[in-house]
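Deviations from the work plan: none for this task. Representative record:
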Amino acid sequence: MLTKRIIPCLDVKGGRVVKGTSFEELRDAGDPVELASFYYKEGADELVFLDITATPEGRDTMVDIVERISEKVFMPLTVGGGLRNINDMRRMLTAGADKVSINTAAVLKPTLITEGANKFGSQCIVVAIDAKRIENSNQSHWEVYIYSGQKSTGIDAIGWARKVVELGAGELLLTSMDADGHRAGYDIELTRAISEAVSVPVIASGGAGTLEDLYQALVEGKADAVLAASIFHYGTYSIAETKEYLTKRGIPIRS
Amino acid sequence: MITIVDYGAGNLRSVVNAVTKLGYQSKITNNPDEVLSAQTIILPGVGAAADTMQNLKALDMVEPIRQFIAEGRPFFGVCIGLQILFTGTEEGGWRECLDAFPGQVRKLPSGLKIPHMGWNQVKQRGFHPVFESIPDEANFYFVHSYYVEPDDKSLVAGETEYGIPFCSVITRGNLVGTQFHPEKSGEFGLRMYDNFIKMARRECHAN
């Protein structure tokens, strides 16, 4: 049976891993190559790296980091942050990444998704969606944000999820901006709505605080994988402990 | 020396890194003569089967690869590199492939998330040297939307379940193909490459 994936996320700035609360208050949590090797040995199923500077210099640093990590770590690697075109994607894939994640560029130029899928295969193209709940008088929906959550697009997240899959995305990395950094649980409603709307795997992100939160995202949220940063980086839970907990609760997990 | 075939699909580095990590030397090539003179070949695979065949044709690699395999020399096809060993694929209409294994490549059934992406178990069907010291039902990393269906079921060495049971490892002597990516499958994946390379070396000394 296909197992559910546990994915530590490493936000990288200036060659170091950092993690903030709601994209602010960054704290240093270590060297990306060492952390990647650590998680590989611990049994993480996959790693995601996001260059949060999203600048040309940041991209060059990431290429170097990905090259060094792929020499030591034999598990899937996804890289995102500031990738703007086919050439940026190719550099990361050639450096040793298995998948590239695009967010702002996908919104600004949706054809990039198709172009990337045609060049490298859909399985390489992850579209990251940062979604924020918008409360109206009697109903709520989620809107897509870009530029690290700083700019609203007015685009409905569920419709956008469907569209990017049509365009060739092979996986979605879904972050709830409301939940991110608060360690109070994933946005289950959002996760389920997106997961049910598309035919490709969905990674739930933003808000993991307890192991129960991960369980809820996988079961109630119907996510295929859960991504978390702080709870792993600060040692709140180890990967082994996380996997043991989820296995006991009946989730198919790679031991 | 392990020869890794480069047909322009990209991520060869992981395969090179895995072989290097195991302590072997490797060479990347897109030269048909180097394919013919190789001792051991790994054909990595990422992308679409039709593009892969087209790229191999453009590089004049189709006949050298066929010949290498026909001579029973050690060859390992990964993912798309497995799929193109079959007679043909449904991907992008009907495309003819290398026909080293009579059989078809078909789309995974709908109803489940496609691609089949993540770690899944391989049930071993009988023993082959590539499984040395790898437990039955060990997890390997998959990412694919099509699966292989060999005519001769006795060649299926490993099976995986995703909606349907499908062939995830096929072997015929020194010819090995896996639907999963050993270079992305942690310690068991590395061990499978190591087993294959050791098998290839024994073969080389025997001749």
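The interface with chain B takes residues 1-5, 40, 45-46, 67, 70-72, 74-76, 90, 93-98, 120-124, 170-171, 199-201, 224-225, 254-255 of chain A (CB under 8 Å).
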